[in-house]
Amino acid sequence: MKAVAVEGAWSADGKRLAYRPYIQAYSGVSGWRQHRGGDTPPLWIIDPASGTLEKIPHVNASDKNPIWIGDDVAFISDRNDGAANLFLYDGHSHAVRQLTHETQWDIRSAGAYGRTIVFEAGGLLKSLDLGSGQTQPITIHIAAQAVEARPQWKDVVKNITNTDLSLTGKRVLITARGDIFSVPAKDGPVRNLTATSGIREADAYWSRDGQRVAYLSDEGGSQTLLIRDALGLSKPARHALTPARDATNASYYTLLGWSPDDRRAVFQDNHLHLYAIDLRNDAVTLVDTSKRRGAFEPAFSPDGQWLAYTVIGANYFTQVRLFSFASGRATDLADRFIQTDNPAFGGDNLLYFTASIDSGPTRSGLDMSTQERPLRKAIYAAVLAADGHSPLPPKSGDEELPGKSKAPLPGGARDETPTAAPLKPNRIDLEGLSDRLVPIPIAERNYDHLAVAFDGALFYLARKQPGSSLEPPSSIHGADADLYRYNFEDRSEKLLRSSVADIHLSGDRKKLLVGLGDNKLDIADANERFESKPVDLGGLRMLVDPREEWHQIFDEVWRMERAYFYDPNMHGLDWRAVRARYEPLLEFVQRREDLNDLLVQMIAEMQVGHNRTGGGDTYHERPEAIGLLGADFRIDRSLYRIQKIYHGDRWNPFIVSPLTAPGVNVGEGDYILAINGHPLDATINIFALLQNTVEKQVALSVSHDGTTAAARIVTVIPVGSEVGLRQWDWVARNQEYVERKSGGRVAYVYLPDTGDNGFTYFNRMFFAQSDHDAVILDDRRNGGGQAANYILDVLSRKYFSGWKDRDGLVFNTPAGAIYGPKVMLIDQDAGSGGDYLPYTFRSLGLGKLIGTRTWGGLIGISTNPPLIDGGFLTVPFFRMYTPAGEWHVENEGVAPDVDVQLDPATVNAGSDNQLDAAIAEVMGQLKSARSLPLQAAPAYPTQLGK
What we know:
Layout (H helix, E strand, L loop, with lengths): L1 E9 L6 E9 L2 E3 L13 E4 L4 E4 L7 E7 L2 E6 L7 E5 L6 E3 L8 E7 L2 E6 L2 E6 L5 E4 L13 E4 L4 E6 L5 E6 L2 E6 L6 E2 L8 E6 L5 E6 L6 E6 L7 E4 L12 E6 L5 E6 L3 E6 L4 E7 L9 E2 L5 E7 L5 E7 L4 E4 L6 E8 L3 E7 L21 E6 L53 E3 L6 E7 L5 E6 L17 E7 L4 E9 L1 E4 L5 E5 L5 E5 L6 E3 L6 E4 L1 H19 L10 H8 L9 H12 L8 E3 L16 E6 L2 E7 L25 E5 L2 E2 L18 E6 L8 E5 L6 H19 L4 E5 L5 H13 L5 E5 L10 H7 L5 E3 L7 E3 L8 E5 L6 H11 L4 E4 L7 E2 L11 E3 L3 E2 L18 E2 L4 H5 L4 H14 L20
Parallel strand pairs: 51-52, 52-55, 55-56, 56-60
Antiparallel strand pairs: 1-2, 2-3, 2-4, 4-5, 6-7, 7-8, 8-9, 10-11, 11-12, 12-13, 14-43, 15-16, 16-17, 17-18, 19-20, 20-21, 21-22, 23-24, 24-25, 25-26, 27-28, 28-29, 29-30, 31-32, 32-33, 33-34, 35-36, 36-37, 37-38, 39-40, 40-41, 41-42, 44-58, 45-46, 46-47, 47-48, 47-49, 49-50, 53-54, 57-59
Helix pairs in contact: 1-3
């Protein structure tokens, strides 16, 4: 770990550097996040010749952009309320004074010549004369249009957000980049049914006969349901969605389906309401309201008169409900002790669904205690009619009498009927329904996407269960399921395909659309043979007018913030006034990157953490894969010499150190003279010779003394990232240091986040050291994730009892605990879950916090959809409050009990003074702490019966 200058300026004489430090640690460079909560680092002035350091007076603010003005340093800071302004540090008096007084726009960058500072605020350039203190605008006219702003054709395969299969599977309806496409499975052209750059069309579905499509449109700034012909030639019919409860139009809608009788569509808003709209008269009905956030998963009955869907109750369990459009009433399929999910109607009045009796520990995804908890579901069929038949009737083996009517097809299949045949009414008898549930005799797994084919066979996906395996890194996200088919005739299941993301049936239930991840689609016959063919998406292109699209993105970001932000009153901010202030700047946007910059400034007006936006259709050079050797180098005698080799984590099969592989025999101090036969010396960048070598064999010419006479050839396989190697090296060195300094009494546990990695690190490091007397938890640079209740539960374990084994060591209940002193290291780069962990650590009285104030961001994110071009927006939609009913931590962070700044000089000297402070604290506590657990059992009883 060392401090490096990431932003700095040399004095005119080149003898001093004013800079803002970053700490280069296990993962490369860890940046200081600008936020009003945590203590961001101060600006420093260093004299490299003498090594002396001078700190510019610092408060809880973001100081940046140092500029030398003679012996003084100007810089940008938001240390006073309002906008960020220019300040000046007097090199003689060491006082700081404010130079500018911008109130509406932040000063974002500045430079100087002589005694004049030029700065930018609100997109305008201004000059400040330090002698007079006068500020003047600088007028610049640039008449140019960037290439990125011109209309252009775009491949939109990577922007697919929704798919639906037509009646007979001849076409796929695809929503991508805000347009609706009709893509042939085999013959015919790709049709863009909407072709609008400045409008977002979404969630497209086929009508029953495949002649019309329904979708949402945000034309005019509010979402509307449109229905048009399948060729996209006629003007669409518009249906207003806004229910009476949303008169202010402050909701965001998602279309969820179209009924088989084409009469109704169902949709949800982001405020947990499920609606149905009658397309004959546009009457909107509130079907239900979920207690908690989650998908409704609607399924229409074959006649369209009933809706099965899911809600989430106060107990966090998902429940399947049946809603009758005739009566307007909803009925639970099961009681509150069972989680039911994934409803799918079959023929012959059957409803398939999943049910689980062990779902409780998995229900609150915010809790880290849900990590690696398997969820087991069984599949059931509900016989909806009182006189209905089980899909698994007893098999008698008898001959049927001549003329006897044929029993229903297994699984509730329907006889094949012509496409235009009238829909058969469904009969659902609610009384006694809970007694007519039939379990399907297959293993309990984590099932979803149930679908009943034309012949009654049941298709379903089984997701990989967490914790049972750790798969190699994969680029295909979400394609982790196995596709099965259950045959009711011979009562057996068959695995059809692995690595599946999702499935959808065609309207006639004879074709299956299979999502394979990475925007790849197959269409297969919905039968046992399962012969599938890929859908050609090569024609999925659209003409994009960037300026129209940028306006749509700006508008949608503004609307999403209004719709999803946890406080309907936006913390009192006049959000319409904010829009009016920033929207005129759209005129000057020339690139998608410019738009991101504008959006960041707009949403920053809310002054909360986790409120981010970025990505989208930005310009990207094709990256060149650079092979890395897992080592640090230094120049010695104009040659590359290996200064340090990172051995990595030998117990992680996916983190491999190239230079430590058996047989390589390369050591620290060796010289690399050539790579793949190309000579290497100080005039050549070593990484230029490692281009395009990731996971490929590379020949290194290595010498112990730097001479060619002693050179030998070794073969290595470079890796694409050194993050894991460097991270574990840093962690292992800290653990060894604490072990040595404490005489083996204190455990060290690092927590890189409060998600998957933090869970893994904690389990690996804590329990292996549970025989120690005390523990240091390192929360620094914690990237957040979940609320780490699991870690806190383990740390809170109290000593109940010891147990005496005749021969072995005593053991304890609870086992796997450290009962002695505990301290936690924190810093300004620990945020989100990394804020919550130290906050609750102190609230529970587990120990002291040492270091610097944390970032300060505890309004959660990740519920709103992505932007039209794949850009992201994270609107904070849920916030933590204390048991006393107070808002805390957001924008204030968690302050340490013992404040220890990690200064650059200490870091560069190879020391970690925060870790030293933690060791000193915990060792001091051990002097007076009661020794638990008891290391020896009491004397054996000497009387019978005792």
